[in-house]
Specification:
2 domains, SAM-dependent methyltransferase, alpha/beta, SAM-dependent_MTases_sf
């Protein structure tokens, strides 16, 4: 059974489960967009069950039999667990790691107008595709090594030059205004090497990640100087936080 059908089955077991259909419909639209090599249009709402949603559901069913109430608790827990699997599903099926949406990229371009970009370790090229859709000069690079393990690098949405991050900086670092790196792995030190090299260049370094969390090495976060910038704050208003991962855009020196 595929992921969305599993969610629908979960909801069918809940009293008044139709209240949760809006979550499933949103997820369906995301899957449809990515299946058609398009970015989702809008940043994601919170999809995990809120405390209020759980409380309301339980309160409405306080008078049912104890066995039925226990079943309700179990079914709610299953549905919440399956919602929490969305990120893993998107990563495995589409190579979609950072939650790049059309409104996020549009805001990025608005705040950094008439500027060029180099994307490092771009994977399937979601970010670069949308930058190019907006007629932004963009160099998109990745050594495509992840294609040996999952969908990342196997189903490209735009032209991705097969080039590792340091070589890409040597090739294009002096030709762009901004270098952007999204969701660098947390168990590799390439991000530290990239940071050292970028400090030799006159560019903005934009990083999408979770500080001391799901992305980037500890050494990177130890060494990175995070710059407060109102442009970054405004852009982050359109970046999705739909589960327990709290990644965002940073300006790094």
């Amino acid at each position: 059974m595929d992921y969305i059908n599993k969610l629908k089955q979960d909801v069918a077991l809940l009293p008044n489960g139709m209240r949760f259909n809006v979550k499933i419909r949103f997820i369906e639209r995301v899957f449809d967009s990515l299946s058609n090599h398009q970015l989702p249009k809008y940043h994601f709402p919170t999809l995990e069950l809120s405390e209020d949603e759980i409380t309301d559901c339980l309160r409405e069913n306080m008078n049912i039999k104890e066995a039925d109430f226990e079943a309700l608790l179990k079914n709610l827990e299953t549905f919440d667990h399956d919602l929490d699997e969305l990120r893993t599903q998107l990563q495995n099926e589409f190579g979609y790691w950072a939650t790049i949406t059309q409104d996020f990229v549009k805001k990025l371009v608005t705040e950094f107008p008439k500027q060029s970009f180099l994307e490092l370790m771009a994977g399937n090229g979601y970010l670069s595709k949308e930058l190019r859709n907006l007629d932004v000069e963009t160099y998109c690079t990745d050594d495509l090594s992840w294609a040996n393990h999952n969908q990342t690098g196997r189903d490209l949405l735009t032209k991705v030059e097969s080039m590792d991050a340091l070589k890409a900086l040597d090739e294009y670092g002096n030709k762009v205004d901004n270098v952007i790196l999204a969701w660098s792995p947390d168990r590799e030190d390439i991000d530290v090497k990239v940071l050292k090299r970028i400090r030799e260049l006159d560019v903005n370094f934009l990083v999408i990640g979770e500080k001391y969390g799901a992305t980037n090495s500890k050494e990177f976060w130890d060494q990175a100087k995070l710059i407060d910038d109102p442009r970054i704050e405004r852009i982050n208003q359109t970046y999705s936080h739909y589960d327990l991962v709290h990644d965002q855009l940073y300006l790094v020196k």
